[in-house]
Each structure stands twice: as C-alpha cells, then as structure tokens.
Amino acid sequence: MRIKLHVWRQSSRSDKGRMESYELDNVVEEMSFLEMMDTLNEKLTVEGKEPVAFDHDCREGVCGMCSMVINGEAHGPKSETTTCQLYMRHFDDGAEIFIEPWRASAFPVVRDLVVDRSAFDRIIQAGGYVSNHSGPKPDPNSIPIEPNVAETALDAATCIGCGACVAACPNGSAMLFTSAKASHLGLLPQGQPERFDRAKSMVSQMESEGFGSCRNYAECEAQCPKGISIAFIGRLNSDFLKASLVEPIDRRGDMKAQ
Amino acid sequence: MNRIQTLYNSIIGKKVIAAVTGLVLFGFLLGHVAGNLKVFTGSTEQGIPHIDEYGQFLKVAGEPLLPAGALLWGARLVLLTSVILHITVVVQLAMLSAEARPVAYVKSKKKAASLPALWMMFSGSLIAGFIVFHILHFTTGTIQIGEFEHGYVYNNLRSSFSNPFVAGGYIFVMLVIGIHLNHGVWSMFQTLGIDNPDRNKFLRTASTALTMAIVLGFIAVPASFLFGLMPEAANYAHELLTGH
Fold first, then answer.
1. Considering only CA atoms, which of B79, B183, B196 is closest in space to residue B124?
2. Contacts of B95 (CB under 8 A, 6+ apart)
3. In A157, B52, B208, B239, which residue has its Cα 20 to 30 A from A227's Cα atom?
4. Domains held by chain A: number
C-alpha cells in the first residue's frame, strides 16, 4: 500500500520544529505502525537524510514507550491499543497520516517524536510506593483482600505510564496517570499507611511539573491504551479532599473535654 | 484556615471550589425557577398577581427576626461571592491549562469530550454577561424595555416579554444555561469524588433531568407571555402589596 506521512521533525529541545511530508509506497498491511516507521527510516537513511527519532521498546503493548499522536489521537485510531500494536491494515491505501509527539509543557520534545516523560517518574517518586518491613518473608496471600477491591486495584495497575492521557487531554492534565498510580496502591491494604499523604504529595508533584487541570472531558479514558477509567480520578479527588480537609495532620496531642 | 488555603492553591482544590460554588448557584436556580412559576398561579382576591406578592415576600423575608431585606441581601452576598469564586478559579485553571499545552496539535480529534463540556468557557461567559443584563433589566430597571415599575413584577414581565426579541433572547440564554448545567452538574459529582461506576448512570440521568426541568421552567415564562397566553393583570394600588 501507498501512504503519505506528515511527521513532526525537531532536531533538539531548542529547535522550533515543523511538520515534514514523506511518501512511502512499499508499505505492507501486515506491518505494525512502528515497522512502517522503520521502513520510513531505512528510506531516509538510504537517501542520506536524518531518520525520524521515536520511542519504542517492547513492541508488544506493555512497556509504554511508544508515544505518537496519530491523526490527532494518542496511539492512533484503534481504541485500547498502543502504537506498536497498531497495524497498517487499520489504514486505507493512499491514507494521509499525521504523526506528532505528545504535546505538553511537562513533556518537552527531545527530538522529533521523542518526549521527555521523566515528569511521570518524579510523580511516582513523590508517592508511588508502599513501605515494607525488612524482616522475614511473609507468607504469600497472608493479607486478605476483597476480590472486587483487588480487581479494581489491578485495573488501575494496568497503567503503563505511556502518557497518552496527557497527550489526549485538551488541558494537558495528568490526572488519569496520577490517579491510576495513587489508586492501585491506595486501594490495597499494603498501601493504606501512606494513602492520604500519597494523594497529597503525588498531586503536589503533578502540579509543580506543569500539567493542566482536569475538566472531566474523559478524553484520557477514551485514548488510554489500557482503557483506565476516570473513576480513578474521582477516587483521587475524594482522597485528596479527605487528605486536605478531614484527615488529622497530627494524630497525637492533648485534648480537653467540654 | 491553613488547610483551606492549601486546598485553594491546589488544582483539585480549585476544581472543588468551582464545584461547590456551582452547587450553590444550581440551588439558586432551582429556587428561582420555582418562584418564577408563581406567574402561572393567578392573582389574589384584590387582584394582586401571586408573583408580585412573592417578590414583596422576598424583600421582607426573615422579618421580624431579621431587619427588612437582611435575608435578601445575605442571599445576594452568598450568590455574588459564589459567582466571583466560580469565575476566578475557573479562569485560573484555564490559564494554567493553556500553559500546559503551549504547542497545539496540527491535527487533533476528540473521542469522548462532549460539546457541552468543551463549550463550558463560552457558555459560562455568556451566562455571566446575561446575569449582569438580567439584574439591570428586571431588578434595578436600569435597562428599560417597555414599561417598568418596581414591584409590579407581572406587568414588567408582560411588558418585556411581549417583545419577541427580548423573549427570544431570554429563551436562548436559558438553553445556554441548560448546556452549561448538562456538563456542570455531573462534573460536580465527579470532582467531589461522589461519582463511581455504580452511580454514574443515575447521577448523569438525574443531572440531565434536573437541568431540563430548570430550563423548561424558565423558558415557560417568556414563552407564555410571547405567545399571548397570559392574561392582563388588574390595576392595583402599590400600598396593597407593601401594606404601607
């Protein structure tokens, strides 16, 4: 099949960047989207041009590295699918395809389609952990967990941290990522000790990274390759509210009766 | 107090303030539309339209426990504060969000965002402008359309809404309010963390139903006057209403 590509090219962080167009005529329907990109890069290399830089790693939909906005949608037109799992058969022959990097001030473009997503790592560092004892190994499954709760936590844990939610959100908000990470720990008994501090510190880190605010469009959920629900955003809102207004800051101290 | 300030400074806190002030304004709209329906209930034996009586009641409500007008001005203060806070936090968040996406996509596509949700800033601005106009029109009488006399609510409505442009304008703005509420009311539940998959359908249906009830209730008044369905009110002395 034959396709026309419009790809964002930017040589460095400071470069202004622009869209460039390429024609590819040796595309096969069985190719994955990234294999098509490899074909483009081979062609560019042979022509003595700079190949397009793009992030990729596992190419089986679990690592969260591939990050392209394809025809205006994060990870392209197929729902609950990462770019690497998108195939050229999902496009028509002669299709015109626009490929852009994630757009957010918190995700600066490093080069072409590669963005720096370390803002997500810093949100995780701020609260995406649980405290463990360093003593003897506990028996497996020694903490009872209600199955529905475990399943919900697992739903949240399917977040691969790719950043599609930020790319998809008209406001560049990272609420879906932050809420999925805060919820998958906050739902489980092991995550209770830090639950409310986690909500506060992860949200605070998210804010200082310069992500936008959530306006309940649910665009993140629709474009999330793992279909993570905005129910987790509501949960984080609720935990953050409790942490800010209800939960005691200091539980110790004197009290008088009246 | 420290906690409130921390909350105010956070993105989620600002959203919560928008949600809570939105709830106050939504409550006001419910009361407002219920009061408006007094237009349809007729007049007293002395010929005073019920809506005029209701207007007078609002002015003196709370007496003698509170000085005259105290409750009215108290409510106005709460509403004004809510409107100002609602607009302030929303504008702050919009500015923040604009900074979060400095380079726009060449091609962008919406998969889930509803049009009412995307139009919130537009519908909100229109409503803010309307509130100012509406107060100058029917409360202070500064903007005179047809005849206007303080206290004669029914006649003022009749005089203004028999003009098709005024009635049409009001009906249009009510539809805009409906669009704003359609997203806003559900959004409040989500922001406060009250919504979840179990309740989602109920909350969304309830939000839409209440919104439609409010909008239809509001539209009924200008529409009825416009189509000449409303009888002329009898002349009555203003003293009958105020009692002095």
1. B183
2. none
3. B208
4. 2
Instruction: Search chain B and give the residue with CA nearest A236.
Output: B193
Give residue A31's domain range: 3-100
Chain A: closest CA distance from residue B167 (Å): 33
- For residue B142, give the amino acid letter: T
Q: Do the beta carbons of residue A79 and residue A222 sit within 8 Å?
A: yes
**Strand, coil or helix: what is A97?**
strand
Q: Which residue has the tokens 């190949």?
A: A51
Indicate which CATH number applies to the domain containing A179.
Answer: 1.10.1060.10
Looking at A55, A74, A100, which one is the last position of a domain? A100
Same domain, yes or no, for A238 and A129?
A: yes
Each residue's pLDDT tens digit, A152-185: 999 999 999 999 999 999 999 999 999 999 999 9
Q: What is the pTM of this model?
A: 0.93
Q: Which domains does chain B have, with CATH numbers?
A: 2-103+114-242 (1.20.1300)
Mean pLDDT of B41-56: 90
Q: Are residues A128 and A208 in the same domain?
A: yes
Which member of B98, B110, B191 has the closest CB to residue A216? B191
The answer to whether the CB of A41 falls within 8 A of the CB of A58 is no
Residue B178: CA count within 13 A, CB half-sphere = 19
Cβ neighbours, 10 Å, residue B177 = 21
ipTM of the complex: 0.91
Q: Are residues A137 and A227 in the same domain?
A: yes
Work out how many CB contacts closer than 8 A connect A with B: 142
Whether residue A187 sits in one domain with residue A153: yes
Structure tokens at A100: 């852009």
**Based on the domain organization, do A142 and A221 belong to the same domain?**
yes
